[in-house]
Design brief:
By secondary structure, the chain is mainly alpha-helical. It contains four helices and two strands; from the N terminus they run H-H-E-E-H-H. It is elongated. The N and C termini lie far apart (about 65 Å).
Length: about 130
């Protein structure tokens, strides 16, 4: 099998196409979630915490040259908090979408041939 035909077979699988659609939708959804987190959710959290700005939190480590090295743990806390809020928002969105989906009714499997034969025998006996 040539590389080109093997790649075509791989690319045309349903999972790869679904993944591509998911990535595109995720990229389009990212600015919405970022705006939600930064402009709607974070300001009340900052207000509740008496105006603490996590991005300003840092530890200064002294160095022999006199210049301190900053460990900005506040930026890390800010990123973790944004991740948790983003994950919760996406979870709630997916949960709402799943509620609107109608469950697909499963078709009953066809009866086995022995059951069909028994029905024919029963129907023949009823006619007599």
């Amino acid at each position: 099998m040539s590389i080109l035909s093997e790649f075509k077979e791989f690319a045309m699988r349903g999972n790869v196409i679904d993944l591509a659609v998911g990535v595109i939708i995720g990229a389009a959804f990212s600015p919405i979630v970022t705006t939600l987190v930064e402009n709607i959710i974070m300001p009340p959290i900052g207000y509740i915490l008496a105006g603490i700005d996590f991005s300003a939190l840092a530890i200064t480590l002294p160095t022999p040259t006199g210049d301190g090295v900053l460990i900005k743990y506040g930026l890390f806390l800010n990123a973790v908090l944004k991740f948790l809020i983003t994950a919760a928002a996406i979870f709630l969105l997916i949960r709402a979408i799943n509620k609107f989906k109608k469950p697909v009714a499963a078709e009953a499997p066809p009866p086995p041939p022995s059951e069909i034969y028994l029905r024919e025998i029963r129907d023949a006996l009823v006619k007599k």
